[in-house]
Design goal:
globular, 6-stranded antiparallel β-sheet, alpha+beta
Length: 274
């Protein structure tokens, strides 16, 4: 399999960034051909076309994002992102070999859309049943892709590097972290970093890190920002959004890919003691 990326494997500096900062930023890491093909696949989806056809007819104050989870309507490039050699190398270098594919999403954010505040996405931390308590230290990885990029101040990603090192208690809010209350626990000064993301970029994050997204101005030169995400998790109980794998995916999966797909999906009661 020829990789979609300009990189073959993470460097030692990349892994230091993942463990110490909670994320790795890879600007313009997709090849030009992969970035263009991924964007074309997304734009060819009928639901996306319908959304875009009516977008400009709405006042900026009435526009909503296009969002679908799980993102199953993937073309060949979208499918390869799940187990591309570079993605596999990253996962094996950071969380070893025992992981599974959790879920995915696709989002288009138009001009005028508001911000997403700082949050964490690991749904085991702040629950109190035994299954969730046991899963708190397991890795939950989000791989964020930006086919058309996001300039700083224009629906860009922002993070608090090192916030993943703070214990996930109700008191550990992003406001208190930025106020310096948890600098000692994190072993560093916790500050906001606003990313300037060129087209074709990837951000690989530990979902325990606090992250958010800035608003998209009504006068943005970019009509909408495209964002797709794949989520992987250490083997164990399902995440709140662990998706059902389409039968077609399973039928066409290689043995390695099938291993990622063979796991329990989320259902009500699956976190209860058995």
């Amino acid at each position: 399999m020829n990789s979609l990326f300009r990189r073959q494997a993470p460097s030692a500096a990349d892994l230091d960034s993942f463990h110490n900062d909670g994320y790795i930023f890879y600007p313009d890491v997709l090849t030009d051909a992969a970035r263009e093909a991924l964007s074309a696949e997304i734009h060819q989806q009928q639901d996306v076309q319908c959304y875009l056809e009516t977008l400009e007819d709405r006042p900026a104050t009435e526009r909503t994002s296009y969002f679908v989870r799980p993102w199953n309507d993937r073309g060949p490039i979208g499918h390869q992102l799940i187990d591309d050699p570079f993605v596999a190398a990253l996962l094996k270098a950071t969380i070893q070999n025992d992981y599974h594919f959790c879920h995915s999403a696709l989002n288009l954010a138009p001009r005028g859309i508001g911000p997403t505040p700082f949050h964490q996405d690991h749904h085991h931390w702040k629950h109190q049943n035994p299954i969730n308590l046991a899963e708190r230290d397991g890795y939950y990885i989000q791989i964020l892709y930006y086919p058309n990029g996001s300039a700083r101040g224009d629906r860009n990603l922002k993070v608090i590097p090192g916030s993943h090192l703070v214990a996930p208690t109700e008191a550990a809010s992003p406001e208190r972290m930025l106020a310096g209350d948890y600098d000692q626990e994190a072993g560093r000064k916790l500050e906001e970093v606003r990313l300037d993301v060129p087209p074709g970029s990837m951000v690989y994050i530990n979902a325990r890190i606090f992250h958010g997204v800035e608003a998209k101005p009504v006068d943005s030169p970019q009509p909408y920002r495209i964002f797709n995400i794949d989520i992987f998790k250490e083997a164990g109980p399902p995440h709140r959004y662990t998706q059902e794998i389409p039968a077609e995916w399973m039928d066409n999966a290689s043995p390695a890919r099938k291993k990622m797909f063979l796991r329990e999906t989320f259902s009500e009661g699956c976190w209860s003691e058995k």
